[in-house]
Design brief:
The protein is α/β, with parallel strands linked by helices and 330 residues long. The protein is built from 13 helices and 7 strands. The protein has a 7-stranded mixed β-sheet with strand order 1-3-2-4-5-6-7, with helices on both faces. InterPro entries: AB_hydrolase_fold, Esterase-like.
Length: 330
């Protein structure tokens, strides 16, 4: 599956910052030059400056290309998917949380993100496994099948009570695609500013009135040409299945460069399971947001359990009262 377009998305901030600085310098240089010119000044300085500007644009393009390349975490699809495990901090692990990387993340960056600490603050009994499923694996077209065979299934055999998956940006997209292709295998998902496709597709969905009204056609099997539309066909199913969508939690920053896709995605989810935090497209937002999400999951479960116990108590009390009434009857 070819998702090379993510190159431009993931590193946009660095590139835009560079372009902004270049533009400001160019404007200042031209203003100074014009201010110092006399009416009879030769046009030669302008010609020389134009040539320098053209050369500088070439250098700028080379620099931006190098910058984008540097933002890509490399991987070797000819080898097994690399993983790193951060074991549970309390007792025997009964939960597994598999974390998928963004396009710029390798195992070291995932470990340095602090997200494992956030998970353990809320779920000390969880094993955290980082899977270095980089862009190179996705390009091969079988990344998620390999993730299932090489990582998920061997780990599941350890007997975890629950298996969760969390993913940032490209990894959030991968998490959605995994659940779409292998439904029912995950007990829950945490999506951290997931990449949700190109602008043209998002515009098409928006013009249709949203994902519920959008006619995405029949699923195409997540091919190289269809995977983006297949992701949204899956999201459309979530919008019509509140039980299935209840397993999904979303978090992103209010300044995240991918945030414009979120208003199309959020209606398919439960409103209380969407977290918007201050900040951009970075682990400094996602790491604390992960802790917030896990605490909310526990609070939701505690509330549901309390309500269930209350119903059973009320039912039991009603049965006892009925028996007493029968006993008193003549």
């Amino acid at each position: 599956m070819n998702i090379g377009r993510l190159h431009k998305v993931e590193c946009a901030r660095r590139t835009e910052l560079f372009d902004t600085r270049i533009s400001r310098r160019r404007v200042r240089r031209w203003r100074i030059h014009i201010a110092m010119m006399t009416p009879r000044a030769s046009v030669a300085p302008i010609v020389r400056d134009a040539r320098m500007t053209a050369m500088f644009r070439v250098l700028q393009a080379v620099f931006v290309a190098a910058l984008l390349s540097a933002c890509v975490a490399k991987g070797d699809p000819s080898k097994p998917i690399p993983i790193a495990t951060v074991p549970a901090t309390s007792g025997k692990a009964d939960r597994l949380v598999v974390v998928l990387p963004g396009r710029a993340d390798d195992l070291r960056r995932l470990q340095d993100s602090g997200v494992a600490d956030s998970i353990h603050q809320a779920w000390p009994g969880a094993d955290v496994v980082f899977a270095e499923l980089t862009l190179d694996f996705y390009r091969e077209g079988d990344a998620l099948k390999r993730l299932r065979t090489e990582v998920i299934e061997p780990l599941r055999a350890r007997g975890y009570r629950e298996v969760w998956m969390a993913g940032a940006s490209m990894g959030g997209m991968g998490t959605l695609m995994y659940d779409a292709q292998f439904p029912g295998e995950l007990d829950g998902m945490i999506l951290l500013a997931p990449y949700l496709g190109d602008f043209d597709l998002l515009l098409e969905i928006d013009k249709a009135g949203g994902v519920r009204q959008w006619n995405g056609g029949a699923p195409q099997g997540f091919t190289e040409q269809s995977w983006q539309r297949d992701v949204w066909r899956y999201i459309k199913q979530l919008a019509d299945d509140p039980v299935r969508s209840q397993r999904i939690w979303l978090a992103y920053g209010d300044e995240d460069r991918l945030r414009k896709a979120m208003p199309l995605f959020v209606p398919a989810l439960h409103a209380k399971q969407v977290f918007v935090r201050d900040g951009g497209h970075t682990w400094s937002v996602w790491t604390p947001a992960t802790l917030d999400v896990l605490r909310a999951i526990d609070a939701q479960r505690s509330s549901a359990q309390a309500a269930s116990v209350g119903k059973r108590d009320n039912a039991s009390s009603g049965t006892t009262s009925a028996k007493r009434a029968d006993t008193r009857s003549p």
